[in-house]
Amino acid sequence: MSNFADFGLASPILEALAAEGYETPTPIQTQAIPLVLAGRDLCGIAQTGTGKTAAFALPILQRFSAAPSRRVPRGCRALVLCPTRELASQIADSFRTYGCGSRLSTAVVFGGVAIGGQQRLLAPGVDILVATPGRLLDLIDRRDLSLEHVQVLVLDEADRMLDLGFIHALRRIVKLLPRQRQTLLFSATMPRAIAALADDCLTEPVKVAVTPVATTAERVQQEVVFVPMPQKRALLTTLLADPAFERVLVFTRTKHGADRVVRHLTDHGVEALAIHGNKSQPQRERALAGFRGGQIRVLVATDIAARGIDVDSVSHVINFELPNVPEDYVHRIGRTARAGAAGTAISFCSDDERPYLRDIEKLTRLKLQVVPLPANLPAVATAPDQERPAKRHFNAAPRWPDNGRNDNGNGRPTSSSPRPARANGQHSSSADGQRERAGDARDLPAFLRRDADGGRPSRAPWWQNRRGRKPGSRAASSR
Ligand code: AMP
What we know:
By secondary structure, the protein is α/β, with parallel strands linked by helices.
């Protein structure tokens, strides 16, 4: 299918897509839309940035507008579950954008805001409901919502819902749904718990895979700078002195780390805001709107909060701290080079993070390009209040020596830090108490692993993998 009209979508939907500037379907859309229109269950391996939202939203809108039905009070016809408020809002916005020419109603509910407005929203019933699992269950428990009329269930970013501890909520929700329904599950990775959930709630699903997690976005220039932890902040401000760093997303591992980076940047005259789980919904929305609108040049985020951030034209992603879950690296750098643009990802790697770098290079099968520290980087004395590795590492291992590598260029060893435990397959709790679960590439289903094999890099269109062919063309399979 080379254009959206080939899917047989109704003209109001085609007009909405044209208004958005969508000309050709992305691979996940090409594969998924006909199957979903045909009523099949689907298990899609796809990350954000691949166009997966439209891959499920368009056929749902098409099917519902072709078969209008009365809204049932406190009911919905399609239920889309996703892990975060930001993602929920974005999915609902996409439904409204693509469905602007239809009479279908879309509502979004998530925690962290007053429940009253959401209760009122649901009272007359809606066509499409986008929700995070916790708030959805609250509304069900208060009898403000019934799931008995759901025709289509979408589980989006299922692996991240698992990471956030929503697996039991998901299982409870699935039990409340009619057996006779269509189910679409999207996940960037396929850990065992998600594969088991898919087995339980999908019926003879078609499997579709694009951009496997191990295939890092080819358009992203990926660099690493070896820098002692105490010099990271100075390195950040030195880099940001270059106006080419137009719209920058900085990642830290912890919420407090994000706040510290924002304070440092603000003190140095750089407009920056943080987005993480301790921020209220209005604060998050303000930060995102400012970043999107260009008033805020730097957004500092934790992995969980950043999930679902859909901002085009991010020129640089900076990994101020490397993620201890290698899959998160792939998600982070996928925030730049979106929708065909180019982008750069720069990782600041201190000595104690080298094991994380190894895990990332193993997963992505790429060696990040090593860039030297800028010559004009101010020397920084190690102060007692500067970032320390997360507490969980303190009993972990012997002190990790500098191996005489002298990354700080002053002939003295860098601050020696305890070596972090290997992340793969472990649960760990970072300094501010955010639970994170490491994925495991070995958990990928065979059809995905096969596609993740080597191959020569190419400068391919934005959705093509490093072999220069559509990633799903061989991987798509059906049972
Ligand atoms: P998603 O993976 O759903 O988060 O989409 C990532 C970005 O791609 C969003 O900004 C979409 O608006 C955009 N997008 C989705 N499908 C297309 C398409 N067929 N052509 C151009 N942009 C698209």
